[in-house]
Amino acid sequence: MTGKTVLITGAAAGLGKACADLLAGEGMAVAVADIDGKGAEETARAIRAGGGRAIAVTMDVSDEAAVNAGVERCIRELGGLDALVSNAGVQIVHPFEDYPFADWQKMLRIHADGAFLCSKAAYAHMKRTGRGGQIVFMGSVHSHDVSPLKAAYCFAKHGILGLCRVIAKEGAPHGIHAYTVCPGFVRTALVEKQIPEQALELGISEEEVVRNVMLKNTADGKFTTAGEVASAVAFAIKDSGGAMTGQSFILSHGWCMK
Ligand code: NAD
After folding, report:
1. First-to-final CA distance of the chain
2. CA dihedral 101, 145, 249, 206 (to 10 degrees)
3. Ligand 1 centroid – CA 90 distance (Å)
4. How many angstroms separate the CA atoms of 16 and 129, rounded?
5. How far, rounded to the nearest angstrom, does the alpha carbon of residue 102 sit from its chain's CA centroid?
6. So what's the pLDDT on residue 56?
7. Residues with active-site annotation
8. 76 C-alpha vs ligand 1 centroid, how far in Å?
9. Which domains, from first to last, does the chain contain?
10. 190 lines ligand 1 (CB under 6 A)
């Protein structure tokens, strides 16, 4: 991976940061993109302090001009764009019948518009150079299965599978490959926030949310880890020949087997 460049969205924290740390450790130059510019700078600074190459890019994935400018900056300052990890995301839970339209629109702006805008900008560069590239989307078990309270999230994450598969078909002649990594629950800020919210919505304790909702259907009662997710992202990026293009990789400790 040495000498290759990757842009990762939502890389100030959680799964994106774990990907940034692992890929930098494997020799990639990393554009750490996040709406949280301060957090992105901290992630990039820590990578540089450890001897890696990284820049921070402040960027809202749902803002087309900001995405295009961020991708251009990555190309200009790091010398190219060989891979994209489209990871930025949020979670908003409500029962379907009470789901506010504004929250539905916010979810789709970040997850669906964000994935579209970032992959479109990366795809254009990868095609223009003739060198192709690897596009990895952060899906979820909720790309394949559903849970109560997550209508907008499931809609968006199911949609990412479709976008990924179309890019795999259209991109292959240009050496552009696409993948979706689909984790089960990982204890990032996004999940920590959901535990009390779901306890309130479902009228159960926080411990019951963890045991009887989040980990109920796993084979071993374990959370997926950020390191496991980052390793799967690296595995997809290394598939430069495209044998696995269009695939989704589910990491859920036996919760979802498809
Ligand atoms: P997180 O909250 O720890 O980190 C998300 C990052 O995305 C933050 O740094 C945040 O600032 C950034 N972000 C939010 N909105 C943004 C925007 N509009 N533009 C740019 N950056 C933005 O969350 P996480 O758990 O690391 O989740 C990352 C991705 O993984 C999401 O797409 C999420 O749906 C997916 N995922 C998470 C889990 C899990 O259990 N944690 C499981 C499956 C899938």
Report:
1. 29
2. 80
3. 5
4. 26
5. 23
6. 98
7. 153
8. 26
9. 5-183+228-251 (3.40.50.720)
10. yes
Ligand 1, atom nearest to 109 Cα:
18
Q: Is 194 in the pocket of ligand 1 (CB under 6 A)?
A: no
Q: What is the spatial distance between Cα 59 and Cα 61, in angstroms, rounded to a whole number? A: 6
CA distance 176 to 142: 25
**192 within ligand 1 shell (Cβ under 6 A):** no
Sequence-ordered strand ranges (E) for the chain: 5-9, 29-34, 54-58, 83-86, 133-138, 176-183, 248-251
Q: Give me the chain's average pLDDT, please.
A: 97
Whose CA is closest to 33, among 47, 12, 62, 14? 12
186 within 8 A of 229, measured Cβ to Cβ: yes
Q: For residue 172, what are the contacts with CB-CB under 8 A and spacing of at least 6?
A: 242, 245
Pairing verdict, β 83-86 and 54-58: unpaired
Phi, psi of 210 (to 5 degrees): -65, -50
pLDDT in tens, 112-151: 999 999 999 999 999 999 999 999 999 999 999 999 999 9
What does the alpha-carbon distance between residue 181 and residue 136 come to, in Å, rounded to a whole number? 7
- Give, in order, the Cα–Cα distances in Å from 26 to each of 18, 107, 143, 227: 12, 32, 28, 14
Q: What is the dihedral of CA 84, 158, 238, 127, to 10 degrees?
A: -50
